[in-house]
Amino acid sequence: MPPSVAPPVSSPSPSTSRRRTSASVVLRSVLEHGPVARSTIARLTGLSPASVTDYCSRFTELGLIRESELPRRSQGVGRPHVPVDLDATRFVVGGVHVAVPYTTVALLDLRGRVVAVRELRHDGAAGAGSGSDAGAVLARAADALAALLARSPRLRCLGVGFAAGGWVDRDSGIVVEHPLLGWHEVPVRDVLGARTGLPVHVDGHARALVNAERLFGRARGSRSVLQLFVGNVVDAAFATNDEVHHGPRSQAGTIAHLPVPGGTEPCACGRTGCLQAELSERTLCRRARRAGIVEGVNPMHVVAAAAAGDPVAARLLVERAGAVGRAVRLLLDVLNPETVVVTEVGVLHREDCLAALREGVGDDRAASVLPSSFPDSVLAVAGGSVALDVLYRDPLAASPEAI
5, 160 in Cβ contact below 8 A? Predict the structure, then answer.
């Protein structure tokens, strides 16, 4: 039986909730500050030294942490403090992210770092195609994950995280609707779980990324974070006080059809100027093809053309980034987060695009707007962070069989 992170238990007792919360803050203190002395964890968390020692003993038994090799002395005298740190050498989580043109399959360690990754192009020019292809896409992802694990036999997998755009219901593990993929009511958790034999956790990619930013990225410590994802799908996620807002059946963050003043792009919904229609990578690439800059639908080709000195490609990217900034400004007016993280191809790779984004936001809030912390691995991190978020919220649920 594979090691696992058990799914969250519904309606836990108050004592169970307190213990889960305490365990979570201890492990996250090790994540953020390790190597760190137990006494420091007690001071940071407000827990008693005895409680911290107990949790650290449990985590050591589970193989999640280990004592650092070099003990530290307090001001050079007295009994040395033996710091603890995450053991990032034993366990990984699997990550699966399904985008329109391809699926990203990865292994991530306990610090959210990508250990191995593979991209699987979807069949057909339109991406993954109709809903009937969903099973084949997931089967290929499961096989690719097994192959990555086979290459690293010393690593044990704690579970699999799945992320995608569209309407993804975390609780049921279902992709309810992804129009660009043609997916409707796809039982991702059941399909991947049956294929891998591992616990599978499912969420939308904007919510996955806001969790990754809180755990491993620049937004760690922010009291409220807005994540805006601008790819072929445009969506958002909002977290306050360490909780991501999901809404009924995980529909929060659906912003694809917000109207863009002056927008001209027709949308599949029948209107003109919807946010996703105006800002999607499909629109960017269509405009680039029309200008004779690139062929195909890969936005990185537009970035490459701009880097090679094409002024039209650069202008298209800068204009898009500025429009994203104006969209962020609207969301700032509504949600007023402390930090905004934007995942958008131009912003990730070009300083002029980041400047245009911040100009669109406005000088008063520009400093609070950041590019993604994972520019070279954003999709891999999105998938894996779904499982890592579960681990850090309930670390004592990690199976003892994983030792």
Answer: no
* Beta bridge pairs of residue 36: 84
**Alpha-helix runs per DSSP H in 235-307:** 275-279, 281-290, 299-307
Contact 215, 388 (CB under 8 A): yes
The answer to whether the beta carbons of residues 63 and 56 sit under 8 Å apart is: no
Tell me the one-letter amino acid at 161: G
The predicted model gives 182-211 an average pLDDT of: 96
Render pLDDT for 222-273 as a digit per residue (tens, 0 to 9): 999 999 999 999 999 999 988 999 888 777 888 999 988 788 999 989 999 9
| Cα separation, 169 vs 164, whole angstroms | 11
Is the separation of the CB atoms in 62 and 401 below 8 Å? no
Closest CA to 99 of 164, 157, 43: 164
198-222 burial code (b ≥16 CB/10 A, e <16): bbbbbbbbbbbbbbbbbbbbbbeeb
Contacts of 317 (CB under 8 A, 6+ apart): 284, 302, 303, 306, 345, 346, 350, 352, 353
Sort 241 into a burial class: Cβ within 10 Å, 0-12 / 13-18 / 19+: exposed
Please say if the pLDDT value at position 10 is more than 60: no
Cα gap 257→94, rounded to integer Å: 32
Alpha-carbon Rg for the chain, nearest whole angstrom, is 22
Residues contacting residue 258 through CB under 8 Å, at least 6 positions apart:
274, 275, 327, 330
pLDDT digits (tens, 9 = 90+) for 315-341: 999 999 999 999 999 999 999 999 999
- Asked whether residue 177 carries a pLDDT value surpassing 50, the answer given is yes
Take residue 298 and report the two structure tokens written for it: 């890969």
Measured from the Cβ of residue 78, the count of other Cβ atoms closer than 10 Å reads: 8
Distance CA 196, CA 191 (A): 9
CA nearest 119: which of 371, 378, 351, 380? 380
Other C-beta atoms lying within 10 Å of the C-beta of residue 21: 12
Whether residue 98 has pLDDT greater than 60: yes
- Reference 189, options 162, 215, 214; nearest CA is 162
| Residues counted in the chain | 403
How, if at all, do strands 200-204 and 156-164 pair?
A: parallel
The 10s digit of each residue's pLDDT in 29-71 is 999 999 999 999 999 999 999 999 999 999 999 999 999 866 5
